Amino acid sequence: MKDILRNIPPVHELQKHHLFILLGKKYNLDETVLTSIIRQVLDAVRNTVKSGQHINKDLNSFIWDEIEEIAKAKNKPSLLPVINATGTILHTNLGRSRLSREAIDRVVEVAENYSNLEFDIISGKRGSRHDIVEDLIKEVTGAEAAMVVNNNAAAVFFILNAFGKGKEVIVSRGQLVEIGGSFRISSIMEESGAKLVEVGTTNKTHLKDYEEALTDGTSMVLKVHTSNFKIVGFTQDVSTQQLVDLKKFQDNLIVYEDLGSGVLFDFTEAGIGEEPVVQKVLETGVDIVSFSGDKLLGGPQAGIIAGKKQYIDQLKKHQLARVLRVDKMSFAALEGTLQAYANNKAKDIPAVRDMLLTIEEVRERATVFLYSVTSLMMFQWELVEDESMVGGGTMPEVKIPSIAIRVQADTLSSQNLADELRKGTPSVVVRLQDQHVILDFRTITQGEIPKLVEAFRKIELTYRD
């Protein structure tokens, strides 16, 4: 052990080695950073030797290999592009909505330049970031006013805190949902300082339940769209319009609906789901609605608040407006997304486009892929009918007919094949079903097909010998 420890080269000796300069150039690392990596590796080698573990190769080669591995990983980003072959369009773990080309271009343009984020170009005076997309939101929703915060959970908290703190807020028991990450409406309400008043039962709530719960201490009636689950069978719900009619019983009662997904394109016209369209909900006379930017809307993460001007103006002046505000790149992406709706080009938005793809269009993508992998003999391919999911906590009961390719490998189990695809570059995330790898082509773009082919080619080159 002592002989091995004595043979570990000192830092200054490794700094003089030709590989020191070579690795610095190869991975764009300066001398200070590379020296820090060397010290890290030498400490690890000493600990390995002292623990009695054997190094089964030349010591110097081992040290330089370890240095290169760390140098290679040093500048590798943590947030990486992924090919989504699962068929889940709004995959929460994979970043939900893909942005449209226009939204991406807007982000790049704004990111690489100074911008008028809080500057009024006409007057030359300080402006407000609340103005950036407000007119667009008003145009596509019909709202009197609007503002944006960093996500819809923040919007819910913000509205409840601003208008319900220390006061009663009535909610149906059937709408006390839990969203991703164990965030519950009841918990958000508690944190906001509002007093939860539950009415009805899990499956049935009647208008009279709300009427009987109204008191002088009631500030708001909250309706939560249950976008991530559906109760069927013996059920009863109260419409938004009926809740708006409660305002005749009490002055200053606010009716707020958390729409969750934020639908601006009526998917019911294409026979997909029953999601309420923001425009139609606002037509009922509801005071405030909120919804997500990165779900069915198809934009960046954001919480959009729209409704009557008197309430939106109060929110803009609230102290939490600064705490929850959105950055310039999110505004740029949201503006690019909303512009598509304003110009009747919603189908240019990837989330909308992928949901509306015909079965023939999906089959064409899968067929192009099949023709491209005929030379890969390690795999067996089978074109099959499939069902895609919307995902993102929306339309839980909706399944969209799709086309997939079922894959098996000669020398790898389905799980091992899925692991290899996931760990590759680019990472390919698949679905496992009945001991097969499933590639659903509803969520694989034409541009991703060559990359997907290359992913399988790399695996064959690794395992065929």
UniProtKB/TrEMBL annotation:
InterPro entries: PyrdxlP-dep_Trfase, PyrdxlP-dep_Trfase_major, SelA-like, SelA_trans. The keyword Protein biosynthesis applies. Pathway: Aminoacyl-tRNA biosynthesis; selenocysteinyl-tRNA(Sec) biosynthesis; selenocysteinyl-tRNA(Sec) from L-seryl-tRNA(Sec) (bacterial route): step 1/1. The keyword Transport does not apply. Keywords: Cytoplasm, Protein biosynthesis, Pyridoxal phosphate, Selenium, Transferase. Its main location: cytoplasm. It catalyses: L-seryl-tRNA(Sec) + selenophosphate + H(+) = L-selenocysteinyl-tRNA(Sec) + phosphate. It comes from the Bacteria. Gene3D superfamilies: 3.90.1150.180, Type I PLP-dependent aspartate aminotransferase-like (Major domain). The modification N6-(pyridoxal phosphate)lysine is found at K295. NCBIfam families: selA. This is L-seryl-tRNA(Sec) selenium transferase. It comes from Sutcliffiella horikoshii.
